[in-house]
What does this fold into?
Amino acid sequence: MAISLWKAMNGERAVVLLFVFRVLSSLPLSLLPHALSLSLLSLFSLFVEIRADNSLALFKTRPGASSGIMLGAVTLPTVMLSKLIQLSRAFSLQRIEIGELEHMTMQFWATSACCCGVLIFLSMVMWCAANNKNTHFSCRVWDAKFSLSCVVLYSVVCCISLATISHTGFNTALKLLWLLCHGFAAVKLIQHILNMFPYCASIGEALLVTSGLVLYFGDMLACTISKVCRLFISPELVSIRYGIKRSEIGIIIQGLLLGLIIFSALFKFIIRLCEHFWGADNSESRQNKEIERSLIFFASLGFIMIVVAPSWMMIILDFDVHPVLWIFQFVFSEPVKRLSLCIYWVGLIFASVLRFYNISKNSKIERILLRKYYHLLAVLMFLPALIYQPKFLDLAFGAALAVFLVLEIIRIWRIWPLGKVVHQFMSAFTDHRDSDLLIVSHFSLLLGCALPIWMSCGFNDRPLTPFAGILSLGIGDTMRKLLKALQLV
It folds into this structure.
């Protein structure tokens, strides 16, 4: 076993293991169960990735890409554990309350449950495929025993850890059920992503997106359930997360994303209903239907984002004023600095987009190299704001993410009159890693810069942490690609 793992080791896997080992080496003894669970998750994901090397055709992944299962499975749990280590130091210094530490503990276990559930699903799919191919029986039995051992040990460690932060056995059972729901939701979501967007992502990329979405919207659901049921059930029995104080900007970003998810489902339902009554298409009415669909799109988008999402924020998360009014008050509390920053951003975006779009249409420069200029643009845009206006940058990242999501929905659904224009513009910057079905490169750049900043909210004793995404993506990754293009590395 050890010899086969060593032979299968490559650069990506070695870097991931080094990353995990570095985090585990800084753990306090109080987080020993978490260290054991992350070790089991890393070993299980490495095993599944090695087994998946010859089975990628089963999952409709992006052609030419490695599976990336191990990287996708351990990234978020390791990041959550790093934050948990930081909060443990803060709690020992009496800088935070025990509730915040318990909240991050549940976030870690929820993320781990998502990844573990998907790994179990992948191993079962490959095991069934191996049965159909009549591979060696002893090999299949060994695979099943190893997978089952990892899952059982992980479950035991999880139960022990949750029992230490629960007041009663019933509370522990509810938390275990909540984690099980996370794992089940992650499995269903990654199946949906791989089927709806075939050949658009590797398994690791889909797993990373899946675990992040399930964790984020699971937190929203927990808050909603706790608020609705608190008249009848103690909030602690539903979720410990409701009692965690959230910043206004965090609430607004969460509400925006929730509104877009509700909008997507609602619009899809309305369109299917309308198509049922419209009947078959014909050339005379097609243009009218496009206009009607566009009106439905923008009307439902406006209703969800102006009425439904703000209502959820105000009722469930106890937001004092309408979020739109709060945003105006926030921006004009320091109008000179923040409006000047907006003008600076708009000028940079307009000049760079106009220039690089023309180059992409008329130049033979590789698109992947051309897109690296946008990484440098991200440094010019975000670095001054992070230094002088970090809170405003938090809000701007959330607004940009919402705009990107709306534009991608418009592009995918070909909403008149912007759908074709947005598609033509975005296609000018795509390469082999994107497809006409789904373009995610701009999301990767934005979230890569934003997530370290968002994760640094609250207690943070590492001043350089917020700069990690901007500097690594904007400078490190760009220089690597430029040097590679010049054949200097």
Observations:
- The CA atoms of residues 303 and 309 lie 9 Å apart.
- The chain has a mean pLDDT of 80.
- The chain is about 75% helix and 0% strand.
- The radius of gyration is 24 Å.
